[in-house]
Write a structure and sequence with these properties.
single chain; about 350 residues; alpha+beta; 6-stranded mixed β-sheet; 3-stranded antiparallel β-sheet; binds ligand L6MH72SM; hydrolase; Creatinase/aminopeptidase-like; metal-binding
Length: about 350
Amino acid sequence: MTQLADLEQAIRQAGVDALWVSTPANVRALTGFSSGADGKVLVGPTGTVTLYTDSRYTVQAQEESRVAVQIARPPETYQHAADALKGLRVGIEADHLTVAGLEDLSQHWEATLVPVRGLIEGLRAIKSPQEVQAIREAQALADRVFAQVRPMIRAGVRELDVALELELGLRRAGAEVGFDVIVASGPRGAMPHGVASERVIEEGDLVTIDFGARLHGYHSDMTRTLAVGTPSDEMRRVYGAVLEAEEAAVAAVKPGVRCADLDTLARGILEQHGLGEAFAHSLGHGVGLNIHETPGLRNTSEDVLAAGMVITIEPGAYLPGVGGVRIEDLLLVTEDGYEVLSLTPKETV
Ligand SMILES: CSCC[C@H](N)C(=O)N1CCC[C@H]1C(=O)N[C@@H](C)C(=O)O
């Protein structure tokens, strides 16, 4: 729910007079239209916001959109906007607009098209109370589903069946499945994005489960690594190291902290345990309409934490041929620190 005043200021700062929005999550954030992928938005030079979509969505757009709706298909969409944009500098979303899309706009508009990056994404990083509530509910629902499914995670069960139960649980509770469920057991745990396979979980395995709900468009995200039976001493040591890094990074979350510094903190702890090389991804990310959004908690990030951001902290260690561990919490950055939204307990391994 991006505020119009903030949007106008960001557009001015980007040095453009108007903005053509084609990124689905940005379309949704600006308008409330839930089929963002089938809509485009023009923020005009006077600050007027128009949602363009086609006649399949007439009723839906009228019900959902907070802004004026124009039903049209390209090329009428472009022609409709052309007069208002003559001679202006119009921002286009460089991270999303295709080369073909750029050609179409150039053909129809007598305007200077200026690539902009991350303009609306930056505004979306700070969530409104309503957005926080949607994420909170999505995570609470995911926590409940995890508790229901937990007893079936044992030796002899396929990863796919664990994923299916999680998906069914989310669906039954009224949510969507936020992303392909990761269930990575035994040596498959060495794959950070090891989506559930036909592998049968064995005694002594660690099992990494990373899943999320999507509710009213907003995601949750959480990872737990569980032990089935007694894992090797090596994997128990790795688990302890990842837990230490996770807890230290969570404890350091507060407004004003540089995301790059948080990544360095967690990475440093894993390095002390000889697992620096094994931490094969960034520490975390913002969560909202997209599963991965601003801020980026990685060592090259310029982002700084601010109250109202919803982020993950998810260090991991991945040992090819052996296994892996990841522990992830979902956090709201508050005025004086943080609130952990993912309430599923971490197990003793
Ligand atoms: C396909 S959505 C995966 C959600 C998951 N919680 C997640 O964000 N993961 C899993 C391990 C790595 C991490 C990830 O994909 N991080 C991105 C932001 C990166 O580039 O490091």
